[in-house]
User: Fold this.
Amino acid sequence: MAQVGIWIVWALSLLLSTVFMSIYIRKVHKSEGIIAVYVIYLALSQILALKIVKIGIWEPPAGVLTFPFLFQLTDTMNEHFGQKETHKMVFIAFITQILMVMFIYFANELPAGDSWWISPDAWLAIFQQQTAIVAASWITFLLTNNLDAVIFTWVKKLTKGKYLWVRSIFSDVPMLMLDSAIFITLGFGLFQGLWFLVWELIVAQTITKWIFGVMDTPFIYLDRWIVNSSKLSRFFGEHSSVN
Assistant:
């Protein structure tokens, strides 16, 4: 029963973020709401990646639960504001990650106070930054999220703006696989020499990301309905023309 509650919370978090962004876009016609949620999810993915979880027969880092959201957000930004704004969002998020790593480093290096009740070793076991993992994460993020924006735009033009699910899935599915392949190969294989783990981790991460990536597709339709539906005009007081 507890497991069911966990997944309800997961779905609720995606629902809340989607509704928030959609209402913000409809009322304000600006992209700051998407960028804010995107930055939060990216930061969470870096922190959650420190814990290995069990999902079915797979044991991926917990960060995989947020990565499908990140690709959904790039699709949402691209859908409403275009490829250029999507690349801008990725760059802004990347800068925030550099700042996050810097401040975690500062906190790690400062001596612990005498009244602090947590073991410094326990703190470092969680927040010690591994150069290999950070470097692999940054390289992968910049490549796959920008490439996702390019593919999404290409498929949208190819289908003449129809079939939202097609451009969402055909941009996200290969990028989620590429994201796992590059990150694991660099972070665990090339940078650390743990080649015996590479294939197993790639498979576990990719399948988990695919499952959650497909599950969040309906929320993209919910976003478009909230932003563009004339049936909500009375509720919002006006009809948004955002495309």
In short: Residues 2-236 form a domain with the Arp2/3 complex 21 kDa subunit ARPC3 fold (CATH 1.10.1760).
